[in-house]
Structures are given as C-alpha cells and as structure tokens.
TrEMBL record:
GO biological process: asparagine metabolic process; glutamine metabolic process; oxaloacetate metabolic process
Family annotation (InterPro entries): C-N_Hydrolase, C-N_Hydrolase_sf, Nit1/2_C-N_Hydrolase
Record-linked PANTHER family: NITRILASE-RELATED, OMEGA-AMIDASE NIT2
Keywords: Hydrolase
Pfam families (UniProt xref): CN_hydrolase (PF00795)
Any one GO CC term of the record: mitochondrion
Protein name as catalogued: CN hydrolase domain-containing protein
CDD domains recorded: nit
CN hydrolase domain mapped to chain residues: 8-259
Lineage: Eukaryota, Fungi, Dikarya, Ascomycota, Saccharomycotina
Organism encoding this protein: Kuraishia capsulata CBS 1993
Gene Ontology MF terms: omega-amidase activity
Highest rank taxon of the organism: Eukaryota
Amino acid sequence: MSVLSKPLKIALLQLSAGANKQANLSKVREYIAKAIKENSSLDLIMLPECFNSPYSVSEFPKYAENIPNGETTKFLSDIAKEYGILVIGGSYPERGQDDKIYNTSVSFNRQGEIIAKHRKAHLFDIDIPGGITFKESISLTGGDKATVFSLPDFGAIGLGICYDIRFPELAAIAARPPQNSFAMFYPGAFNTTTGPLHWHLLARARAVDNQVFVILCSPSRDITSGYHAYGHSLVVDPMGNIIAEAGEADEIVYAELDPELITKARAGIPVTIQRRFEIYDDVAKDAKISDI
Ligand SMILES: NC(=O)CC(=O)C(=O)O
C-alpha cells in the first residue's frame, strides 16, 4: 500500500504581496474563491512564502503577529472552515512568546483547526556578487525542528520553507520511516538570480532522493517591489517529472497527486530499501519533529 491513501487534489495560489496587509489578505480570499469555483472537488490549497507582507528583513517585525492569536491565523482558519478545505498557509512573520521574529507556516484541517506549525529552520543569508545579497538573520530567528504532520484522510507530509529545500535532511526525515511522508511542501520565494539556477533542480532532487511528491508555491513576480520573486510554482512527481508549473504572474496551479506514482517509482528503483545505514547515519532517527 502506498503512503498516500488516495489521490489528493491541490491548488497552489501564486500571488504577489504588497505593503497593505488587508489588501494582501483580500486578494488571497478572492483567489481561493476562484480556485474553488473552478475546481469544486479540491482537497487542499497552498499559499506562497510571505503572502501577507513584503519579503523584506526591515519589514518583517512590522508585520509580525502572534500565532495562533493574530489576524492572519484567524483569517486562514476561517477560510479552511468556510470551504471545508485543507490549507497550507504559505508563511508569514510571527512574533514568538520570546519576542523573536520567525518566518512561520501554519496548516489547517477542514474544521479550521491548526494541524502544523513550521518555523523556517535555515535562514536565507547569502551574498552572490553581481546577483543578490540577502540576510534574513538581521531580523529573523531560525526554527529548531523539522515538521511532519498528518494530512487527515491522506497520510503524512513534511513541510519546509524556501531555503530549507537546500538542506536535504528535512525531506529525508519526513520521507523515511518512522514518518513515511508522501510529499514535501515548500512555500518558497526564490528570486531572479537563484530561481533560474536552482529552483527546478532542488525540487526535482528532493523528489528523486526520497521518491515523494515535491510542491513549491512561490509569490508571483512584482518588479516594482524590493524583492523579485522567481514565480514558477511547481509540482514534481516521485520520479522527478514536473507535472504542473506556473509562469511568473499571479496564477492558480492545479495538480492531482496520484498514489500509484509513488508505488511505481519505489518498485522500479527501490532505493527506499537499499540504504546502507551501516556506512552512514540515518538522519531520520531521533530527529526533532515539531509538535505544533
Ligand atoms: N528566499 C529563500 O529563502 C531562498 C532562496 O531564494 C534561495 O535559496 O535561493
């Protein structure tokens, strides 16, 4: 039996976010209504990284909210409940109890209850001369756990945020026993330097490494903003094939995750049972998993 119990129908909302939080949330609401109108049998909606605020280290503290008591968490919970749909709530800046700021993703069941919370573990601190310099650690603190949770009626999934995809350990922890996830979801905002270099490569690599679906949801590209997101929200199957992809503008991407594709990939190339843990350590053993 596959680790995914039945086909999962998903929609990725590739949307840009501006300075006005209310306008950003209204746009999300409008696109969710559109997605459900276009595809009434949808199971899950996913949003991009930083969908309620600009992607900017100086702006994060101004937009940061308490989770679960802030307005964006309530907004997402209401949507999940209203439409009876699973929601992977992209990410938004969180002000923790410790007064530190995190880049956090919250997921909801069909009743609007929180089923997972992931704090971006690996902060995006890079400096590519002639390309891009970015330092999330100026205002953000990294989370300290991997996130794996059960998507009701479907099975386990892992979740990381953007730069987390560069670290294969989180996906390996999610995909291997004892977690046995069928997919890795990454809300992510690569940019016009790193996107063309690595976006597809990393998504396909994580999929093939672990024989799972990999789903990336990006903001759309707004060249009037301070950060030019790459776009190209993506769904990759367990063999590494791209089965759905957005362009650069606002767009909804639909895909169906078919359990048979996992079964076939694992039967044909049985790496899941060929690992040599007597040669190297299994990162999935004793991993620190988020418990909300
Ligand atoms: N924005 C990110 O967190 C990551 C990114 O753009 C990259 O890894 O490239």
